[in-house]
Amino acid sequence: MARAMQQNHHVHAGPQQQDHNAHEAMHQHKHRYGKDKDTLLQRMRKIEGQSRGIQRMIEEDRYCPEIMAQIASVHEALRSVARELMRNHLRHCVAHAIRSGGAQAEASYDELVELFYATAR
User: Fold this and answer.
1) Nearest to 34 by CA among 82, 80, 84
2) What is the mean pLDDT of residues 39-51?
3) pTM, entire model
4) HEC string of 1-18?
5) What domains are there in the chain, each with its CATH number?
6) Which pLDDT tens digit goes with each residue over 59-79?
């Protein structure tokens, strides 16, 4: 009986396991940022410095609109990094998954939908 339940469990979990395997295969694909990696890291260091600057502004009791302007600047800088990451992801990782076809391509489409939804907020 236990063996039959295990067999039924495996049969029932088949499509889910395939989706999981395709998702794992997508993430095992080597990410290559190339020359973009240095640019992205440079932008992130600049954002880090801006963030520390905002912290100092708060510590110094600076005028709220000045702080909010700096926060907006950091927010836009992060969005810019996200756009570059998205562009890189589409050119390399997603293109690879689509060329591979099958469950890996389907998992990539699902990932993109979730990614678009998460970044559109």
Assistant:
1) 84
2) 97
3) 0.69
4) CHHHHHHHHHHHHHHHHH
5) 31-119 (1.20.58.1000)
6) 999 999 999 999 999 999 999
